[in-house]
């Protein structure tokens, strides 16, 4: 165990342990993995929601607040004799705790502390199968004398719609409604009107008092750090009527020396079916029952089944390599982050406010790639939901709301790479499961009844959409933007109130993307394999031709001599070329063209990768472009609005780094691939937490590039395609274990100084025990089953009944 300034990894318990509360930024975790979700920081900040952080927000949170990270799942402990109080989670009182520990685990967080010999430990968990969160407080008196304590809980309710909640005060100050029965606080603003749902906050103990009106609890002009009720030790039993409903319980407790006690609090969401929404007051029986059932034994059970759930998921792919950072990320944290991105896309983190972005079409189709092997059934559902937001044109809504599953009108469509990602997620699903029936599922277009067509046709539409939109160089037109949301070549915005993503001042018939060209070929190649699975060999001809044509267009117009060009702008000029003054080279086309196989034979791939190494790579990772733009260019859009080194303008935009790792592995450079992997691996960066600043157990979207004064500083942690792609790069390409239509393929491209590695992978119901030994310095691997060498690198599916296979691999 290596305890650094802010904490350490506890690999055995699959936890990151934070040992001081004042981390450089709040280091957060997620509770819940089904419908009920919470974000929780290392000092108990954060909020909860049901399915949709925008439309069903349970508790309020103020982003960009000062001091930072105020508002959360708070408890106050008051020594009634000494009239002194503190927060066992440090915030909000920030009292000087004698000991503090926060354990972020998979789906739970435990914060413990000592203050003047009173020990408190709170375990926060969302049990599987329930729409509620449990706070389990264990409190122990280590003093020589007995102590008279008051415990106050507090959460602030959000009036459901988080956008309206933060804006429409003239109405909202009048609508808040609470009901209290048997010590359970029900938040029921708009309940029985347009809503069939309410929240409840309950406590296992009988109450000394309660509060539900914020001002009564805090006192006027006071903050969370010194509520009047806690200071005086007396709840006011307030009943919120308008203004700002909160939930606060007051429990009194005498603890003898060495005595301990458990208190359980539950915050939950309940939805009546719509017909029952007008049930009379007091009939919310289900919740009262739920509240009673939650006792310490049930909490232990819930905790055990959550751990079990995760252990089963993590068992599907497990590795033991010579590198601890690889093991830790592959076995624990990377799949965990992938689950969160899979569930929440880019909607709710400490950088994504939960109100601005829903489920991204491009994003979620990519997120699926890294979680497919763990939850194929859920992946299937998600694929079908995404496909249903495709438009009849083949284009797609850029985002949808998880609650309604309908495309977001305000952002619309025309991000021309979007439809292609659907082909990639479907093909990954097919390889993982072999379930070709998904292709026949009838799926609507634009969620309109009557428009159903087989999913297979959706894929055809996706490809057709690109094929029908080629520009002057026969390369795909870029539309509003491709993967790089900030390369807005048709936007020409001179008005700060316009959105870079949706404004379109040019017709869009000229600007082209070499990145989409590469992605198009990659998608076509996958689609051709799908056609082969369907025995539709005749149809492959057309798509092969499209791929060949696009390949020629890239080689003719997309090759700059030392690297791939990025795009052509609205005037037909190159972007990402040595001819440009700024933005001469971009990472995206180097990654995706090579991944699509473009230029490998011609030696362009090697050249492009050399250029990446000499022009874009830094010790903190590979930058998105160089040199960054030093001023705003109206014909380039948002990218040039960022200061050099930040975000798309030359930061290490981590999402794209694995594309280069994959490309390096494809051309046989195991050392280089793994070196790039390590540069952005959060665990490997733990020792530089003061520079990196974000969580050391989770990937961040960006790390400031070399042109920024904060070079090496990460931002936008958690919700990023970085998570999925890193797991793909390291497992499928560096470790080389990939699902295919014909069986599990194994062809590692590992560093030269690795003696080998071991892995287990459950694939289509069979557990493969893989043992890899390096006997030479190259990349040629030979596969043995029961000491008998097989031909090629794909282990054929075993006959049914065999559910375990032992594979030896020798690399020469
Ligand atoms: C960000 C992008 C993001 C886009 C859409 C831009 O400001 O830089 O990373 O994808 O907004 O929300
Ligand atoms: C974040 C967005 O979620 C993603 O869709 C996009 O590809 C990247 N930013 C790059 O702009």
From TrEMBL:
Residues 14-273 form the Glycosyl hydrolase 94 supersandwich domain. SMART domains: CBM_X. Pfam families: GH94_b-supersand, Glyco_hydro_94. SUPFAM superfamilies: Galactose mutarotase-like, Six-hairpin glycosidases. Residues 309-736 form the Glycosyl hydrolase 94 catalytic domain. One of its GO terms (biological process) is carbohydrate metabolic process. One of its GO terms (molecular function) is glycosyltransferase activity. Keywords: Glycosyltransferase, Transferase. PANTHER family: CELLOBIONIC ACID PHOSPHORYLASE, CELLOBIONIC ACID PHOSPHORYLASE-RELATED. This is Uncharacterized protein.
């Amino acid at each position: 165990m290596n305890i650094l300034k802010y904490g350490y990894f506890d690999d055995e318990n699959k936890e990151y342990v934070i040992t001081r509360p004042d981390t450089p930024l709040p280091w957060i975790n997620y509770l819940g993995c089904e419908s009920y979700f919470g974000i929780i920081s290392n000092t108990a900040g954060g909020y909860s929601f049901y399915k949709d952080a925008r439309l069903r927000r349970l508790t309020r949170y103020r982003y960009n607040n000062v001091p930072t990270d105020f508002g959360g799942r708070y408890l106050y402990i008051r020594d009634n004799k000494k009239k002194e109080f503190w927060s066992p989670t440090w915030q909000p009182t920030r009292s000087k705790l004698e000991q503090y520990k926060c354990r972020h685990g998979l789906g739970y967080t435990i914060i413990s502390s000592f203050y003047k010999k009173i020990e408190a430990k709170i375990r926060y968990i969302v049990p599987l199968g329930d729409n509620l969160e449990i706070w389990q407080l264990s409190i122990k008196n280590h003093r020589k004398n007995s102590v008279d304590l008051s415990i106050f809980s507090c959460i602030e309710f959000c009036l459901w719609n988080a956008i309206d909640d933060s804006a429409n005060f003239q109405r909202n100050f009048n609508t808040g409604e609470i009901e209290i029965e048997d010590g359970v606080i029900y938040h029921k603003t708009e309940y029985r009107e347009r809503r069939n749902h309410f929240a409840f906050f309950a406590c296992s103990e009988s109450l000394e008092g309660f509060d539900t009106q914020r001002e009564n609890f805090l006192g006027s002009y006071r903050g969370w750090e010194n509520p009047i009720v806690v200071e005086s030790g007396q709840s006011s039993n307030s009943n919120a009527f308008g203004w700002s409903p909160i939930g606060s319980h007051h429990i009194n407790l005498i603890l003898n020396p060495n005595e301990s006690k458990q208190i359980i609090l539950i915050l939950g969401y309940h939805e009546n079916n719509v017909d029952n929404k007008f049930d009379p007051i007091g009939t919310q029986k289900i919740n009262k029952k739920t509240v009673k059932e939650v006792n310490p034994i049930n909490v232990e059970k819930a905790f055990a089944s959550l751990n079990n759930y995760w252990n089963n998921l993590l068992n599907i792919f497990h590795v033991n390599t010579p590198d601890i950072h690889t093991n830790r990320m592959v076995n624990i944290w990377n799949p965990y982050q992938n689950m969160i991105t899979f569930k929440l896309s880019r909607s709710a983190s400490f950088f994504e406010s939960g109100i601005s972005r829903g489920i991204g079409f491009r994003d979620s189709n990519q997120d699926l790639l890294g979680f497919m092997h763990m939850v194929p059934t859920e992946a299937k559902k998600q694929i079908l939901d995404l496909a249903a937001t495709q438009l009849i044109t083949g284009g797609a809504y850029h985002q949808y709301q998880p609650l309604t599953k309908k495309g977001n009108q305000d952002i619309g469509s025309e991000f021309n790479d979007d439809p292609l990602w659907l082909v990639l997620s479907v093909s990954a699903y097919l390889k993982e499961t072999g379930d070709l029936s998904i292709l026949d599922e009838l799926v609507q277009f634009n969620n309109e009844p009557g428009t159903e067509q087989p999913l297979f046709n959706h894929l055809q539409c996706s490809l057709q959409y690109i094929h029908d939109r080629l520009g002057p160089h026969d390369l795909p037109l870029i539309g509003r933007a491709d993967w790089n949301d900030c390369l807005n070549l048709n936007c020409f915005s001179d008005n700060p109130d316009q959105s870079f993503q949706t404004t379109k001042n040019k017709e869009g018939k000229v600007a082209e993307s070499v990145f989409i060209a590469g992605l198009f070929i990659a998608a076509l190649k996958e689609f051709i394999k799908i056609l082969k699975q369907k025995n539709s060999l005749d149809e492959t001809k057309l798509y092969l031709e499209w791929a060949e044509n696009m390949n020629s267009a890239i080689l003719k117009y997309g090759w700059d001599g030392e690297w791939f060009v990025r795009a052509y702008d609205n005037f037909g000029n190159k972007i990402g070329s040595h001819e440009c003054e700024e933005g001469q080279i971009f990472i995206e086309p180097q990654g995706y063209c090579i991944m699509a196989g473009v230029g490998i034979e011609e030696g362009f791939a090697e050249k492009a990768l050399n250029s990446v190494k000499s022009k874009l790579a830094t010790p903190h990772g590979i930058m998105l472009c160089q040199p960054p733009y030093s001023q705003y260019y109206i014909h380039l859009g948002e990218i040039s609005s960022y200061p050099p080194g930040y975000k798309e303008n030359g930061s290490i935009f981590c999402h794209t780094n694995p594309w280069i790792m994959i490309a390096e592995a494809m051309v046989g450079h195991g050392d280089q691939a793994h070196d790039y992997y390590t540069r952005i691996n959060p665990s490997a960066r733990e020792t530089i937490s003061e520079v990196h600043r974000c969580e050391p157990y989770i990937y961040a979207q960006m790390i400031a590039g070399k042109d920024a004064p904060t070079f090496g500083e990460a931002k936008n942690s958690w919700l990023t395609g970085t998570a999925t792609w890193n797991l793909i790069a390291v497992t499928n390409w560096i470790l080389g274990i990939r699902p295919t239509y014909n069986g599990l393929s194994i062809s590692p491209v590992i560093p030269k100084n690795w003696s080998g590695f071991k892995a287990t992978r459950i694939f289509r119901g069979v557990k493969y025990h893989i043992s890899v030994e390096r006997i030479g310095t190259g990349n040629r691997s030979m596969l043995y089953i029961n000491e008998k060498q097989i031909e090629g690198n794909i282990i054929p599916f075993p006959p049914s009944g065999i559910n375990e296979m032992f594979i030896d691999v020798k690399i020469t």
